[in-house]
Model the fold of this input.
Amino acid sequence: MGYTRLADGVWNSGKLYVAYSKKLEDVEHAAELFRDTHSAMQIIQYGEPRFIERGMMSMKNFRDVWSG
Done:
């Protein structure tokens, strides 16, 4: 499926660190690459462990780093 390949491609691109952009940006822009490709995967491949784990990683990082 094309959207799955896109999400996996972004994840494996080397541009992310714990689901956020490696570039120094504000939280909204740092989350775009992940958010724009992975949010839909929770519906497209409901229950798929790799997308659940990635989402949990993103939320933990948001909780612990971006929104202390």
